[in-house]
Amino acid sequence: MEREKNRVLLVYKSLGRVLTCPHDYGLGLRAPQPLVDALTAMRQSLRAELVEVQDFGDDDWLSDELAQDADGPARMSGEK
């Protein structure tokens, strides 16, 4: 179970990096909105899976891990 949890968390964080730094992946300064929407939906699904796994464990690893992660893509200055 620990191994599966780590893999899910790794994918969750990787998707977050694509959202926060799309230019690192050749997408320019901002990823296209349909891609942002799809990746965000995937991250929400993975987060729900992580919460479910957390409910079966005694340790509070999830809040520590997710606290380090941004909930959305980086915003351009002046963008709301």
Please tell me about this protein's structure.
The chain is an all-alpha fold and 80 residues long. It has one domain. The chain is built from 3 helices and no strands. It starts with a helix and ends in a 13-residue tail after the last helix. The relative contact order is 0.18. The C terminus is likely disordered.
Main sheet, how many strands, which sense, barrel?
Answer: none
Mean pLDDT across residues: 78
Q: Give Rg in angstroms.
A: 14 Å
Please tell me the total number of domains.
Answer: 1
Shape category: elongated
How much helix is in the residues? Answer: 55-70%
How many angstroms does the end-to-end distance come to?
A: 40 Å
Low-pLDDT residue spans: 73-80
Q: Let me know the number of strands.
A: 0
